[in-house]
Amino acid sequence: MARARITIVGAGKVGATAAHIAAAGRLGDIVLVDVVKGLAEGKALDISQAGPIQLYGSNIVGTCDWERTVDSDIVIVTSGVPRKPGMSRDELLATNVRIVRDVSKEIVRYSPDSIVIVVSNPLDAMVYTAAKVTGFAKNRVVGMAGVLDAARFSYFLAKELNVSTEDIKCVLMGGHGDDMVTLPRYTCVGGIPVTQLLDQGKIAQLIERTRNGGIEVVNLLGCSAYYAPAAGAVKMAEAVLKDNKTVLSCCAYCDREYGVGGYFVGVPVVLGKGGAEKIIELDLTDSERGQFEKSLSGVKQLAAKVDEFLRE
Ligand code: NAD
């Protein structure tokens, strides 16, 4: 069987880290693309030279030339300007819409059959941009945010309960960051709902820390997180490439589901070779539904702004 071809757009912190994780996971051959001359080439060479130590032999190419990406099975989009301390994700919007628009046109040109995983922020708006510009079937464009937010929540829970992170399964909905909707009722520790193991106050504290998880790292590092975001994107790519049918919280297109009416928003998704193959609809309480609606209205506002930028 031919090896999978993975294009990663943006050879910055998230993109290069994703390339390394994908190579170490032996997911396929990788093309790393960036507009900065030498950057993708240098990162690809460095990652390739870790191969003999970590025992992977993927072909890893770094380039500014989109022609090298031809016929990729999957394209992970991390190109864009990252958040600086004190900067909101929405402030990134205008710049990153243009970048993701240009990248999306190249994806259509060179890999018209690919599945696209968007990481660039503001996430929900960038997924909308990529879907709109590529015109791909809606299941073929998904965004990575819920996997990261869920991982952060799981990590904090594991530390609090002194259990293995592997035992925690959690599902999140809504937009990325401030507007995410955590669902403690559906969060389990070795199959036991976390609501039976921790009191409400403690859970609320950990949710708050998760909500601010991105900014906590930004304030420490002076730049946004990249190890966990890259791992999240590669987890999604793996589910698609191996047709794993993994259930993950992703930003995916919902029409009738949850009554969303045609927007990309965070929901539990079955990810396989078709991309977002199925949206799982959970029963929500009035309060959870209210949080989701609030989040969705933020997503709709962002989409309207994207439409304005794309008309310019
Ligand atoms: P970075 O600055 O390290 O890397 C971004 C790279 O994109 C740069 O190397 C830049 O040259 C490149 N780039 C810009 N325009 C391009 C184009 N048209 N074609 C190809 N490459 C281009 O930033 P980072 O820390 O890697 O973050 C990347 C993006 O991911 C940011 O938008 C950030 O906000 C976002 N992010 C999202 C999540 C999430 O949970 N969804 C988490 C972390 C970061």
Q: How are the SSEs placed, and which strands pair?
A:
Blueprint lengths: L4 E5 L3 H12 L4 E5 L5 H16 L5 E4 L10 E4 L15 H18 L4 E4 L4 H12 L6 E3 L2 H16 L6 E2 L2 E3 L5 E3 L5 E2 L2 E2 L6 H12 L1 H9 L5 H15 L4 E9 L8 E10 L2 E5 L6 H26 L1
Parallel strand pairs: 1-2, 1-4, 2-3, 4-5, 5-6
Antiparallel strand pairs: 7-10, 8-9, 10-11, 12-13, 13-14
Helix pairs in contact: 1-2, 1-8, 3-4, 3-9, 4-9, 5-6
Bound molecules: nicotinamide-adenine-dinucleotide (NAD).
Produce a short descriptive summary.
With 312 residues, the chain is an alpha/beta fold. The protein folds into two domains: 139 residues, NAD(P)-binding Rossmann-like Domain (Rossmann fold, 3-Layer(aba) Sandwich); 160 residues, Lactate dehydrogenase/glycoside hydrolase, family 4, C-terminal (L-2-Hydroxyisocaproate Dehydrogenase, Chain A, domain 2). Helix content is 44%, strand content 20%.
Notable traits:
20% strand, single chain, 312 residues, globular, six-stranded parallel β-sheet, three-stranded antiparallel β-sheet, binds nicotinamide-adenine-dinucleotide, alpha/beta, L-2-Hydroxyisocaproate Dehydrogenase, Chain A, domain 2, 9 helices, Rossmann fold
